């Protein structure tokens, strides 16, 4: 009977786990849909800014901005997004592997002497990349910035990166995050933030922008310098939102897998429990019958 009690306890424990994982899946799903909705709202704004800048660039007028000026690369900053919480499967591991591959590519392209600054966003990612710190690699998390950061804090984070680029602290700033495609699919994505690549502005929704006869007031350079930071802010806001959506999608899939495993284990335990219970009843009946015969 002690074995039956143990099985009954395990069944209760697994049943509780199944309920917990099911509830966590529902919560993560709601958060994911919220982030997905925010992404859909942000996309038209970014596309419109890209269209405006694309028209500026295709116009026959000079323009300039220190944020698009390329220079020899000696110092590179890589901002990598991860999660602050666990239970999201291999989400952070996959991003960390991509970071290692990208570091190898950059050192191969710019030389082993290039200085790298890794800026992790998210507690789990901060812990993961800390092991990469070395003579030519600095890990520099930003206080007050995590995977849940929104609003003015995102703008402040962007300004700190722009200041680092303009002061010469960074010659190149790249973003590494998980691009949200669907609940079942998120793919690592790289994006060059600084210097801003003018080629990205010559297309909108995958179509090349045609030059139009605009009259610019006050002038192209002034407009360009005013709108370029808005574009970069839209990119940064979108990356933070994509990271949240991808993290929750990964958690939904992880909780679904855990829930399915709990259901299978529960079925096995119940089957084993019923067999053992039936065996115990049969043994008791045989003992009773044996006693009557004697």
Number of domain modules: 1
User: Over all CA atoms, what is the radius of gyration?
Assistant: 28 Å
Please work out how many helical segments DSSP would assign: 5
Question: CATH top level?
Answer: Alpha Beta
Tally of DSSP β-strands: 7
For the record, give the distance between the C-alpha atoms at the N and C termini, rounded to a whole number: 26 Å
Strand order of the largest sheet: 3-2-1-4-5
Describe the structure.
This protein is of the alpha/beta class and 294 residues long. The protein has a single domain, classed as ATP synthase, F1 complex, gamma subunit (Pyruvate Kinase, Chain: A, domain 1, 3-Layer(aba) Sandwich). Helices cover 59% and strands 13% of the residues. It has five helices and seven strands, in the order αβαβαβαββββα. It has a five-stranded mixed beta sheet with strand order 3-2-1-4-5, sandwiched between helices. Strands 6-7 form a two-stranded antiparallel ribbon. A hairpin with a 5-residue loop joins strand 4 (172-180) and strand 5. Helix 1 runs antiparallel to helix 5 (220-293). The radius of gyration is 28 Å and the shape is elongated. It starts with a helix and ends with a helix. The model has no long low-confidence stretch (mean pLDDT 87).
Summarize the structure.
By secondary structure, this protein is α/β, with parallel strands linked by helices. It has helices at 2-58, 91-110, 123-129, 152-166, 220-293; strands at 75-81, 115-121, 137-139, 172-180, 186-194, 203-204, 207-208.
Which terms summarize this structure?
single chain; 294 residues; alpha/beta; two-stranded antiparallel sheet; 5 helices
């Amino acid at each position: 009977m002690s074995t039956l009690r143990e099985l009954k306890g395990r069944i209760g424990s697994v049943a509780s786990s199944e309920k917990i994982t099911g509830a966590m899946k529902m919560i993560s799903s709601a958060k994911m849909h919220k982030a997905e909705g925010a992404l859909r709202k942000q996309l038209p704004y970014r596309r419109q800014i890209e269209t405006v800048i694309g028209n500026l660039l295709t116009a026959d007028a000079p323009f300039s901005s220190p944020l698009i000026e390329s220079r020899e690369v000696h110092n590179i900053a890589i901002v990598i997004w991860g999660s602050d919480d666990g239970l999201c499967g291999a989400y952070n591991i996959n991003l960390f592997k991509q970071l290692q591959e990208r570091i190898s590519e950059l050192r191969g392209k710019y030389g082993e002497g290039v200085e790298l600054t890794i800026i992790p966003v998210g507690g789990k990612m901060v812990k993961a990349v800390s092991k990469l710190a070395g003579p030519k690699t600095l890990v520099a998390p930003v206080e007050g910035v995590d995977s849940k950061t929104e609003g003015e804090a995102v703008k402040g984070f962007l300004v700190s990166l722009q200041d680092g680029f303009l002061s010469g602290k960074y010659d190149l700033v790249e973003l590494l995050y998980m691009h949200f495609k669907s609940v079942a699919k998120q793919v690592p994505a790289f994006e060059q933030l600084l210097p801003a690549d003018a080629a990205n502005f010559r297309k909108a929704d995958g179509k090349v922008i045609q030059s139009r006869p605009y009259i610019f007031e006050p002038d192209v350079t002034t407009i360009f310098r005013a709108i370029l930071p808005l574009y970069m802010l839209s990119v940064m806001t979108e990356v933070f939102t994509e990271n949240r959506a991808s993290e929750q999608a990964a958690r939904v899939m992880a909780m679904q897998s855990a829930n399915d495993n709990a259901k299978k284990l529960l079925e096995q335990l119940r089957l084993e429990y019923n067999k053992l219970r039936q065996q115990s009843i049969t043994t008791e009946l045989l003992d009773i019958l044996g006693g009557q015969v004697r």
